[in-house]
Design brief:
It contains 6 helices and 4 strands. The protein has 142 residues and is mostly helical. It has 2 domains: 81 residues, TIM Barrel (Alpha-Beta Barrel); 54 residues, no CATH class. Helix 3 links the parallel strand 1 and strand 2. Helix 3 runs parallel beside helix 4 and helix 5 packs across helix 6.
């Protein structure tokens, strides 16, 4: 778990919208976690009354590559869950890409154009992860 409040305390970096002063350390922590096969959670969002600010930071966290966001208040549950869960469009696209790469005629393809976008075989891990997360969320809800 990335301790963004600890980072601010130790470096005197300001806690500001967008977290630009902390971005180098955030990215170093993400790179270290990925290099070592670790799960990494983003630190807390301190303003428990700013639900939209929390949502923005959760989106940023997901876009940067975090696995989740630590939360400190019930008002932060929905933004965190919504932002980190793959959307139905993402899941549909992931299933389609996986399915096309799995076709026998594409067995050795390194990259394919699918609906106007290029996908490399290396993207399949991301696609499978989106489907797996979706299926785990669905299973948990039932």
């Amino acid at each position: 778990m990335l301790g963004t409040n600890d980072l601010a305390k130790d470096t005197w970096a300001q806690i500001v919208k967008g977290r630009a002063p902390m971005m180098p350390w955030i990215m170093m922590a993400l790179a270290a976690a990925r290099a070592n096969g670790l799960t990494i959670l983003d630190g807390v969002f301190n303003d428990i009354e700013d639900v939209e600010g929390c949502r923005e930071e959760c989106r940023q966290s997901r876009d940067l590559g975090f696995d989740g966001k630590t939360i400190i208040h019930p008002s932060q549950i929905e933004p965190a869950n919504t932002c980190f869960a793959p959307s139905s469009d993402e899941v549909e696209r992931a299933r389609k890409v996986i399915s096309i790469f799995d076709e026998p005629e594409h067995g050795k393809a390194g990259a394919l154009k699918i609906e106007g976008r290029m996908y490399e075989r290396q993207h399949l891990g991301m696609m499978r992860r989106a489907v797996a997360w979706h299926e785990a969320i669905v299973a948990k809800g039932t």
